[in-house]
Amino acid sequence: MRQSSLDSVLRPDRVFGNLRADSLGAFDAIKAVTAYAGSTVLFREGPMARGVFLVCEGKVRLSVSSASGREMTVRVAGPGEVLGLSAVFSGSPYEVSAETLESSQVAMVTCNDLTGFLQQYPEGCLQVVRLLSYNLHAAYDLVRAVGLLRTRRRSPISH
Predict the structure, then answer these.
(1) Which of 41, 64, 65, 84 has the greatest count of CB atoms below 10 A from its CB?
(2) Is 73 helix (H, G, I), strand (E, B) or coil?
(3) How far apart (Å, rounded) are the C-alpha atoms in residues 97 and 114?
(4) Nearest Cα to Cα of residue 78 among 114, 97, 50, 53
(5) How many CA atoms lie within 13 A of 117 on its CB side?
């Protein structure tokens, strides 16, 4: 049995981490792992998604920008995280830009290859749903935190 080169990052708490060995092997076969230097843009906010990116090693900054060009870091992704998943499945542009912060290894799976994989190995669909749900809850938490922070700043201090 061939072992996936992504075993170290595909833990059960990460996407595809608890798939059967044959499914994991099939996933390993459709990805392309590339080593990137720091400050390399993996994808930009705006263009249509061409695939998902799995961070194997290193850190990737996810950011959004305004029409005037101002950027804001949304978060930093690390090993085991999948980037671009919601854009791929919604058929929409990438919502954020992704740039490596340091030397990183990142696997890329094209939209077509990922869709084909999930059709052939439907157990992966549940993992995708879990990850998308996790990302949605993380977004809710961020909105809640930002909203409550602004509310606290505006509220007079009561004694």
Answers:
(1) 84
(2) strand
(3) 21
(4) 53
(5) 25
Tens-place pLDDT, residues 113-122: 999 999 999 9
Residue 131: which pLDDT band, with cuts at 50, 70 and 90? Answer: confident
CATH architecture of 21-110+117-154: Sandwich (2.60)
Report CA-CA distances (Å) from 94 to 43, 49, 50. 8, 6, 9
pLDDT tens readout for residues 1-23? 334 444 444 443 456 777 888 99
| Residue 139 phi, psi (nearest 5) | -65, -40
Contacts of 138 (CB under 8 A, 6+ apart): none
Every domain of the chain and the residues it spans: 21-110+117-154
SS3 call for 31: coil
Length in residues, the chain: 159
